[in-house]
Amino acid sequence: MPLRSLSLQLYSVRHALDEDVARTVERVAAIGYTQVEASYKLMSAGPETLDAIRANGLTAPTMTSPLFDVDLDDVFAKATELGASAVIESYLPEQYWTSLDDIAKTADRLNAAAAKAADHGLRVGYHNHWWEIDQSFEEGLTALESLEARLDPRIVFELDAYWVAVGGQDVPSYVAKLADRVAFLHLKDGPVNRDNIEQKPAGQGTLPFPRIIAAAPKLEAGAVEFDEYDGDIFDGIAQAFAYLNPQVER
């Protein structure tokens, strides 16, 4: 199955955004992106991000945000203003993943957030790193799979394909196992290690993206993302776009 749509996670260009929000979003649009993934942090900093997104005719299917110890009403209000359909918890550090009890507590909190999101017409999602993948507290299951088994069925996953590989899994097989929840994918490439500076544009590393995408029949959007990039980030996101955009269904 081809990609339905392609976004850019604006975290990739965060340093440029710090300098000039309007110009940065304009450059993203000039590459050819029609969608972006914004964050609650950006949306809370002032109207500049939303103004720039609208001025360049972009949409935002997702917004990332902390979902613990935050004003959820404000989070969901900003997601609604952005036009997002889902709010993604994008970073729960390793201290949340030390035991099965930790995982159960995280599931409870995500489920509560999902119930509140539904009142706003939104969904909640979860985005992984490697530590949810390379740990196991139940036989035969990764920690992320243990979380999945405890989640409200309305909660979706935004799987980061690269971190799934770093966690030691065959990515297409792992995506297929969680396919009922995989609504979004983060798409970056590289040598499959934890050194962020070695990340590469999709298609320039070891990940089999056509097979990964095909393993997620409920996929709504892929998002180009870099944690770091050893080069001109705009060149990096342009190369990723050139590789992935032809895979978007027309």
TrEMBL record:
InterPro entries: IolE/XylAMocC-like, Xyl_isomerase-like_sf, Xyl_isomerase-like_TIM-brl
Example GO molecular function: isomerase activity
Record's keyword terms, sorted: Isomerase
SUPFAM superfamilies, per database record: Xylose isomerase-like
Residues covered by the Xylose isomerase-like TIM barrel domain: 26-216
Domain of life: Bacteria
Pfam families in the cross-refs: AP_endonuc_2
Protein name: Sugar phosphate isomerase/epimerase
Organism in which the protein naturally occurs: Jiangella rhizosphaerae
